[in-house]
């Protein structure tokens, strides 16, 4: 067994050495080759949302830190965080919606809170870290728009745990 492993490793090393020996020096590789080494797939922007189908528009109103209300027509399935970011509202979403921060913390209008599916353990753990937690707090990246939430009102908290310089000015 041991001898077999040594032989296998030796064969692999020899093969990789040969492959390296066959690789041309970097200076000899045409410049266009390097350009193709990097991925050219689309960047996954934050705040990507779908256009609602005619007649299936849902409505959401955000109340910002300074008390201004903004209402948008949105599609079913988009998250509150994506909607906020797509419209340039002040929602950081530092972890990109992977439930690993609390910077997408929102306060849901109590009238709609029970219409949202219960938060799972991961969301509850992150909510515990949210600044200014309330009885109707949720993470915006974990709440998807549905017909039951049509007309929902969501307040953006005055601060999030990921403090920025602008929070102090
Ligand atoms: S964006 Fe990080 S938990 Fe929602």
Write a structural description:
With 169 residues, the protein is α+β, with helices and mostly antiparallel strands. It has 2 domains: 2-40; 49-161, Ubiquitin-like (UB roll). It is 27% helix and 14% strand. The protein has 5 helices and 5 strands, in the order ααββαβααββ. It has helices spanning 2-22, 31-37, 80-86, 110-113, 121-127; strands at 58-63, 69-74, 105-108, 137-139, 152-155. A 5-stranded mixed β-sheet has the order 2-1-5-3-4. Strand 1 (58-63) and strand 2 (69-74) form a beta hairpin. The longest helix has 21 residues, at 2-22. It is globular. 22% of the residues are buried. The model is unreliable at 6-10 and 39-44 (pLDDT under 50). Residues 81, 93-95, 97, 99-101, 103-104, 126, 139, 141 line the site of FE2/S2 (inorganic) cluster. Belongs to the adrenodoxin/putidaredoxin family. This is Ferredoxin.
